[in-house]
Amino acid sequence: MRDLSGPERLAVAREQEFLDRALLRHDQLLVHLEREIRDTSNDHAGKARARGLRQRYEELRRSRDGLVFGRLDAQDGTVRRIGRTGLREEDEDADPLVVDWRAEAARAFYTATPLDPQGQARRRHLRVDGATVVGVNDEPLDAQSAEPGGDIVGEGALLAALGQRRTGQMSTAIATLQREQDDIVRAPATSPLIVQGGPGTGKTVVALHRVAYLLFTHRQMADQAVLVLGPSARFLDYIAQVLPALGETAVVSSTLDALIPGIAVGRAESRRAAEIKGRAGWQPAIESHVASLRPQPQDLTLRWEGESYTVSEEAVRQALRSVSGRPYHHARRVFTEHVRQILTEAVVERREAMLTEVEEGLEDVLAVFDRGAKKSIAPAGTAVGAEIDGTMSDDEVDDLRERIAGSADIATFLRGWWPDLDPQTVLAQLLHDEARLRRHASAAPLDDDEIALVTGEPAGWAPSDVPLLDAVADQLGSVAEGAGENHGTEDFVADRARADRGWIYGHVVIDEAQELSEMQWHMVVRRCPTGSVTAVGDIDQTEAAHRHTSWDEAVRATLGERWTQADLTICYRTPREVMELTGPVLARAGSRNDPPRGVRSSGVSPWESAVDEAGLPAAVVQAVTALGERWAGGTVGVVAPDRWVVPVSKALRAAAAGDVPVLTATGAKGLEWDATLVVDPHGITRQPRGWNGLYVALTRCTQELGQLRLTGEEPLSFLPDE
Ligand SMILES: Nc1ncnc2c1ncn2[C@@H]1O[C@H](COP(=O)(O)OP(=O)(O)OP(=O)(O)O)[C@@H](O)[C@H]1O
Question: Helix 44-62 to helix 6-39 angle, to the nearest 10 degrees?
Answer without folding.
Answer: 160
